[in-house]
Write a structure and sequence with these properties.
Blueprint: H1 3-25, E1 33-36, E2 39-42, E3 60-65, E4 68-72, H2 78-89, E5 96-100, H3 106-109, E6 119-122, H4 124-145, E7 159-160, E8 164-168, E9 171-178, E10 185-190, E11 195-197, H5 215-226, E12 232-234, H6 245-266, H7 271-274, H8 289-308
Parallel strand pairs: 4-5, 5-6, 6-7, 11-12
Antiparallel strand pairs: 1-2, 2-3, 3-4, 8-9, 9-10, 10-11
């Protein structure tokens, strides 16, 4: 047997063994981190979707109240949602009575099936977006993370969010309708504990994503969030913090990205050339900076070109 053939067989066996090991577990290893009184977060990885992480790249959470448990976002699959329920049950014997979905991106709502029978609440535009785009998102995740998605189907929220203050036990939750990351972004601020669940309006130590971004709306939303008396900030992605620094960093990056793409278009650069632009040192501690910058060029470049180059006919 040739050396090359032996090497190929060994590599094939290693791939099979690794795949079987991953498939045998399908354990998201969700650990509830207490961030305030009665308030817990499952902190995801600051990574892309992979077969290894199964889509566990998002922060989800829950609040234990005397009226029951309030869940914020349900993760990227039915498996995630079921494991989330088990992890919640290890903290409290109170039932889940309400689920809030912050927006329509798949890592935030595809665990909804695990909470079927519970009131699942979202902004009206989010429900519309899930009905329009959810099936395509689920198909893409099946391709990106494989069998972690087994049994996952789209379950849209069944209630439109009541905006303003909602009282759950001793917790006074402010349900906020904002936009910018998508056309409908819910943020939840608990006036009792000072915890802000920002959804993907805020990324921390992880470069933001822009497939549905509107920078003007996003900056306005960040101004609104910055005015809150935040004690604990739970971003949609990245580590939890007790400062508003991530909001300032988001504003800085969005303004830089907007200016950079505008300048590239006005200078006549192609998308490929724009992707080679040197990235500022101050952003290089954020995970996935290069890849997300390139994706943002792909997402946004045409819309900027359309502002600069008018049709001659």
């Amino acid at each position: 047997m040739s050396y090359l053939l032996k090497f190929s067989l060994i590599l094939f066996v290693q791939i099979i063994v690794t795949s079987v090991t991953i498939a045998a577990n399908f354990d998201y290893q969700l650990k509830a981190t207490k961030v305030a009184e009665n308030t817990y977060v499952f902190v995801g990885e600051t990574e892309d979707f992979t077969f290894e992480n199964g889509g566990n790249i998002v922060n989800t959470g829950f609040i234990v109240t005397s009226d029951g448990v309030v869940v914020i976002d349900t993760g990227s699959s039915l498996r995630y949602g079921n494991q989330m329920k088990e992890a919640i049950a290890s903290v409290t014997d109170k039932p889940v009575v309400l689920v809030y979905i912050t927006h329509h991106h798949p890592d935030h709502f595809l665990g909804n099936q695990a909470f079927k029978g519970v009131g699942i609440v979202a902004l009206g535009e989010t429900i519309k977006n899930i009905n329009n785009e959810g099936a395509g998102f689920a198909d893409n995740l099946y391709l990106m993370v494989g069998d972690w998605m087994r049994g996952t189907d789209v379950l849209a929220p069944n209630h439109v969010a009541e905006l303003g203050l909602v009282t759950m036990g001793r917790h006074k939750l402010e349900i906020m309708s904002l936009a910018g990351h998508t056309s409908a972004d819910m943020a939840i601020f608990d006036h009792t504990t000072g915890v802000l669940f920002s959804g993907d309006l805020i990324f921390h130590k992880r470069t933001l994503t822009t497939p549905h971004a509107n920078f003007e709306q996003w900056l306005a939303s960040l101004t609104t969030l910055r005015a809150l008396p935040i004690k604990v900030l739970v971003p949609g992605h990245g580590p939890i913090t007790k400062t508003k620094k991530p909001i300032n960093e988001m504003v800085d990056y969005i303004n830089w990205l907007d200016e950079t793409i505008s300048n590239a278009v006005n200078d006549g650069l192609s998308m490929t050339d724009a992707m080679q632009i040197e990235l500022p040192e101050r952003f290089k501690t954020n995970a996935l900076l290069k890849s997300e910058f390139s994706r943002s060029i792909t997402h946004l470049y045409l819309s900027y070109e359309n502002l600069v180059f008018k049709r001659v006919n």
